[in-house]
Automatic annotation (TrEMBL):
PROSITE patterns: DIHYDROOROTASE_2 (PS00483). The lineage of its organism: Bacteria, Bacillati, Actinomycetota, Actinomycetes, Propionibacteriales. Binds 2 Zn(2+) ions per subunit. Zn(2+) 1 binds at H57, H59, D151, D304. This is Dihydroorotase. SUPFAM superfamilies: Composite domain of metallo-dependent hydrolases (SSF51338), Metallo-dependent hydrolases (SSF51556).
Amino acid sequence: MSSYLITGARIVGGEVADLLLDNGEIVAVGTNLEAPAGVETIDAKGLIALPGLVDLHTHLREPGREDAETVLTGSRAAAVGGFTAVFAMANTDPVADTAGVVEQVWRLGREGGYADVFPIGAVTVGRQGSQLAELGAMADSAARVRVFSDDGDCVWDAALMRRALEYVKAFGGVIAQHAQEPRLTQGAQMNEGALSGVLGLTGWPSVAEEAIIARDVLLNAHVGSKLHICHLSTKGSVEIVRAAKARGLDVTAEVTPHHLLLTEDLAASYNPVYKVNPPLRTKEDVEAVREGLADGTIDIVATDHAPHPVEDKDCEWSAASPGMIGLETALSVVQHAMVDTKLLTWADVADRMSNRPAEIGQVGDHGRPLEAGAPANVVLIDPAVERTVVPAESKSLSRNTPFEGMTLPGRVVATFLRGTPTVLDGMPAR
Ligand SMILES: NC(=O)N[C@@H](CC(=O)O)C(=O)O
Ligand SMILES: [Zn+2]
Ligand SMILES: [Zn+2]
């Protein structure tokens, strides 16, 4: 294993210091550190060092849709985006609802070596919403699953949701809900409002998200378990979670980069690259989720990286699959929407994109402060450069980025996973 001396980085955006990485750990942080023999030096003047990013919500598509993404390609894209850990959603084919499937995904991540891949287990068998999956067996497996979700679909049955929340208490697991009331969103295509009427696309009303979040907050209060809200997107949802936290309830929430930046007007192009669940909302909603992320109501940013091959996107809006890729642009979007607007500091970004997601996902080797003794999961970013998003440059197998052509700030220069570079000079290191 190689050793690295990173010199002159601004640690989490603050003081300038050197970092010595050896044997998979950060062995020293300080000024004017000497490079022992055989250590490679990386000049990080002007760069910011953050703890390796952690994505609690990624779709890697393997097994089943290896034409859209694989564990290897998705985790490579994650590394390029500055991530050292990703949580892989369960809506694969077969569904990740048994110990066997989650162990397979976990092992593929280890073999790839680009990021630690932590599988999320399905809540219900086949994500069909009728019978609890083997949550305990997945928790006890080599993959040590702690996060469970039927993402892609809502656990809409209140009795089943209650049972799931109760069941995971035994091992401190968390249920991550895709909050979408199915009856209120039948055939839904975009945010419900004046614009959906004009465009003639069936509306996906805010209340369909908020009604489930409110219900689940109450269920969780009753049961005393852990609830996490996936891709929260409306002003009303922020208010419900804020009230829940004020009551001291164990509820956490995430927002995606696209919901922090993009609005429903993009649907007027009828370009399905802007079709996503939950849909892009209004300017007022974007302001509310930014504020919620800034004041801690929303705990984390999670990408909901949802790769789709051209044939599933290059079609009429209503026939297209919902979802957008986001691993490689997440940090730039957050810099643009939250840091450059002074809503978050870089230390806050480390909290929302590394420390807190690692805590919610219960993976202790990630999201640690950059201190001696911590695992050497580190990302170096250059906040001063700008780049234009070019889909063909993506390391994902899919190209469905909604940020095509946009000029965004910041670039990931290097990523280290347990001291081994996964990215150098902005490119995969292997
Ligand atoms: N977000 C999406 O629009 N799509 C996701 C599923 C999901 O996150 O709900 C997908 O798997 O493609
Ligand atoms: Zn979802
Ligand atoms: Zn998702």
